[in-house]
UniProtKB/TrEMBL annotation:
Protein name (record): Nitrate reductase
Any one annotated GO CC term: membrane
Alphabetical keyword list: 4Fe-4S, Iron, Iron-sulfur, Metal-binding, Molybdenum
Keyword Iron-sulfur part of the UniProt annotation: yes
Transmembrane spans: none
Reported cofactor(s): Mo-bis(molybdopterin guanine dinucleotide)
GO terms for biological process, alphabetical: cellular respiration
Source organism of this protein record: Thiothrix unzii
Superkingdom to which the source organism belongs: Bacteria
GO molecular-function term, one example from the UniProt record: molybdopterin cofactor binding
Length: 734
């Protein structure tokens, strides 16, 4: 029998002529896949493939990883340092020495004029850990500003804050292997198949074997929700109410684990008193999940021999973000689901090295989960770095979102932005623009020179990215993996580590503080500083990490000396009674009263605006917007809109519409779909000058993370579709 293709040219996959494969961990999401990049005989990167014996991805990669080698030659890369007097002026290329002298002088000038904390430094979750550590040492030990934070405040700070409040320390207790042991999985506000495709694959494979029920809580019918046993379309921002109601049912029906609670927690009485108020009938009216479903979910979760919860931005990016995390931890603790196989509360982190920055950047304190507020921690680190402990602030300074407000108010006059792009990613772009415009000096250090934020900079420093650099990253399950330099940064661009070390020289003229040049040596220094801490990595080195395709912390020098192999598969923390990080070893059960303080739809702005991500794109698209195979799937901004709402408003598929909020407006193409309810639109935030012109981003009181997912808009039709299409092409930018 003949089939069509046999009569035409057969499909041929071009031979990429790979001469050598080089190892790296993926530089996009926090899954932590091991990649090999193929180089041809000229040393040009031409292919990427998954590493078969890596425990995380077992040979697989997603759509972003598979084209990651194309980054090295993508458009818009910065090739030389650049300077200008005012952000209106033309850029002038300059030498590294000139730029770095100027950076040093401007930092000191602004600090001398307006005080040490008037110069802010904001970094990222997308550099290598040795870079974070070096920048932390430079900032805390030499520059001396307390307004130093990372973009992780937009992303993981609610998880960090919630873990600290519940367990006494940051640090996700579970691992991917838990999927293989669990009897029930609740996913709160997480679209795993699109945002962490390989974790999804691990989860799905485990589920197909054991058949555990998957319960998804998300107002949108995500790809994960489509695969769920139960999908709870929660009213945005009310997850805490559902959690309280589930606890109400669990206590009322005696489904809690009293032995675990007695042995490992404090505060159960206050929690019981609070959740008493959240009977399912009352709660249903607030959170939009009917009373029977609340009971069924509570029972299914509590009765499972081991039950697991994961969550991502649907929880963290809320005015109740930190409370949502504590609520998840409360549910886990009262049912004894922490530290046992398949029983865990696992925050799915976001950026490739969001964990690395939490552990080592000193943004929220001092290295290895130490606190500025604890005198012994200040002493330990000051001695280790050879700096004066009195130079350290006695408490943490502003978080990233507060720094922009201080810029707007004129308190902060200078800014060094490293690997983050606030003009695209912060809520309420108009306010961020005002804040950026007022700076006396702004330096942007980015691997691309065409970012929205660089438009407001006086200095641009071209950095290497991902596998143009040398170091490590930590993934969602605390696995530290190796990134090896596959190729050199283009033009005059330099690895971020090189830049930090050159800046350090300028602040460290007497050579008092040691700044090792090689990432491998820095890693060993970090190992020393981690001894005896929760995240003890003293048994690891770069070679061991590569051999094992990543090792989960902790792995101590003593374990290694005694011949104990690095942990394989799944490693958990808090596995034994009384091992939480509070002084008495107990976790805290914390009551969570609910106050509804979100912007909610009303007559003028009747539709929820929900924002988030697509599988093919990465954040502001500085990377994926330039890779054809990623960009082609969604090259322009669009909204998911319910077909009934579209019909009511007279909007056809493919028409451009105008979205208006109290902050501003944006144009996007309408894609009618039943993925969203009639009172909600979903707008991916990847596009230039779009979603964040609209968002309000009220801040969580504990974590200062913005509520990106809850704002109100109205939708207007556009008569001149040609003009709208033009505008949309401009937003496309790349
Ligand atoms: N392809 C791709 N992958 C990525 C990224 C990327 O840009 N592109 N970014 C990485 C980063 S930094 C992060 S932080 C993660 C984010 O990963 P996710 O959090 O999984 O992704 P989002 O699309 O931001 O939001 C997830 C879901 O939250 C839901 N949600 C909105 N409001 C609520 C609510 O009130 N309650 C609940 N329960 N859910 C709600 C949304 O409908 C959405 O489906 O992805 C990482 N992975
Ligand atoms: N509306 C809305 N807004 C959101 C979110 C949302 O869900 N909705 N999510 C928020 C979340 S969770 C996050 S994490 C933030 C992300 O917000 P951003 O931090 O602004 O994210 P990116 O666009 O990835 O910016 C990273 C920048 O670093 C550069 N870069 C990449 N690698 C390197 C490197 O190795 N060195 C240097 N020097 N530069 C590098 C990139 O070119 C890019 O310009 O967005 C937040 N904003
Ligand atoms: S799942 Fe994440 S880490 Fe793995 S290849 Fe995709 S983007 Fe990279
Ligand atoms: Mo994130």
């Amino acid at each position: 029998m003949l089939f069509g293709r046999t009569q035409k040219n057969p499909i041929k996959i071009a031979d990429k002529q790979v001469a050598e494969w080089k190892y790296a961990a993926c530089g996009y999401c926090s899954t932590g896949c091991s990649i090999e990049v193929g180089l041809n005989a000229d040393g040009t990167p031409v292919a990427s493939r998954g590493v078969a014996d890596a425990d995380v991805n077992r040979g697989k990669l997603c759509l972003k990883g598979i084209f990651e080698h194309e980054l090295f030659t993508s458009a818009g890369r910065g090739l030389a340092p650049m300077l200008r007097n005012h952000w209106h002026d033309q850029w002038q290329p300059t030498q590294w020495d000139t730029a770095l002298d100027k950076l040093h002088d401007e930092i000191r000038r602004v600090q001398a004029k307006h005080g040490p904390d008037s110069f802010a430094i904001i970094s990222t979750g997308q550099m290598l850990t040795e870079e974070f550590y070096t920048l932390g040492k430079l900032t805390r030990g030499l520059i001396g500003t307390n307004n130093y934070d990372g973009n992780t405040t937009l992303c993981m700070s609610s998880a960090v804050s919630g873990y600290k409040r519940s367990f006494g320390s940051d640090g996700p207790p579970g691992c991917y292997e838990d999927f293989e042991h669990t009897g029930c999985l609740i996913a709160w506000g997480s679209n795993l198949p699109e945002q962490h495709p390989i974790i999804y694959w691990r989860m799905k494979e485990a589920q197909e074997k054991s058949g555990f029920p998957l319960i998804v809580v998300d107002p949108r019918v995500t790809m994960l929700a489509q695969n769920a046993n139960m999908h709870l379309t929660i009213t945005p921002g009310t997850d805490v109410v559902l959690m309280n109601a589930m606890m109400h049912v669990i206590f009322k029906e005696g489904l809690h684990d009293q032995r675990y609670i007695d042995a490992n927690t404090n505060g159960v009485e206050a929690l019981r008193t609070e959740v008493e108020k959240y009977d399912p009938v009352t709660a249903a009216k607030i959170c939009g999940i009917d009373e029977d479903t609340i009971r069924v979910v509570a029972r299914t979760f509590a009765k499972a021999p081991a039950a697991m919860q994961i969550w991502t931005m649907g929880i963290n990016q809320s005015t109740h973000g930190s409370d949502g995390v504590v609520g998840i931890n409360n549910l886990a603790l009262i049912t004894g689901n922490i530290g046992k196989p398949g029983g865990t509360s696992l925050s799915i982190t976001g950026q490739c090295n969001a964990m690395g920055t939490r552990e080592w950047s000193s943004c929220s304190g001092l290295p290895s989960f130490r606190y500025l507020e604890v005198p012994e921690h200040r002493e330990e680190v000051a001695k280790f770095w050879n700096v004066d402990p009195e130079f350290f602030p006695k408490k943490r300074g502003m978080l990233q979102t507060d720094i922009y407000q201080a810029m707007e108010a004129g308190q902060i006059k200078g800014l060094w932005l490293i690997a983050t792009n606030p003009m695209s990613s912060l809520p309420n772009t108009a306010r961020i623009r005002r804040a950026m415009e007022q700076l006396e000096f702004c330096c942007v250090q980015d691997c691309y020179q065409d970012t929205e934020s660089a438009q407001y900079a006086h200095m641009y420093l071209p950095a290497g990215t991902w596998a143009e650099k040398d170091g490590v990253m930590t993934n969602t399950e605390r696995r530290i993996n190796r990134v090896k330099p596959v190729t050199a940064p283009p033009g005059e661009a330099k690895p971020d580590l090189w830049i930090f070390n050159r800046v350090a020289e300028r602040f460290n003229k007497a050579g008092k503080v040691n700044f090792p040049e090689q990432a491998g040596d820095i890693f060993l220094e970090m190992g020393q500083l981690s001894k005896g801490r929760l995240a003890d990595i003293s048994g690891m080195d770069h070679a061991l990490l590569e051999q094992n395709r990543g090792v989960q912390w902790p792995y101590t020098a003593t374990q290694r000396e005694q011949g104990e192999a690095p942990p394989k598969g799944g490693k958990r923390i808090y596995t034994v009674d009384g091992t939480f990080s509070y002084p008495d070893g107990r976790a805290k059960l914390i009551p969570l009263p609910f106050i509804d303080n979100n912007e909610v739809p009303d007559e003028k702005f009747p539709v929820w605006l929900n924002t988030g991500r697509l599988i093919e794109h990465w954040h502001g698209r500085t990377k994926t917007g330039k890779i054809g195979n990623n960009n082609k799937y969604s090259p322009i901004p669009f909204i998911e809109i319910n077909p009934d709402l579209a019909a009511e408003l007279g909007i056809q598929r493919g028409e451009y519409v105008r979205l208006v909020s109290r902050r501003g407006d944006a144009v996007a193409m309408a894609q009618p779909t039943h993925r969203v309810p009639k009172n909600m639109v979903f707008l991916p935030f990847h596009f230039h000058d779009c979603a964040n012109r609209l968002t309000l981003g009220l801040l969580d009181p504990h974590s200062r993370q913005p509520a990106y997912k809850q704002s109100a808009v109205r939708i207007e039709t556009i008569a001149d579709q040609v003009a709208a299409a033009k505008l949309s092409m401009e937003m496309r930018k790349f």
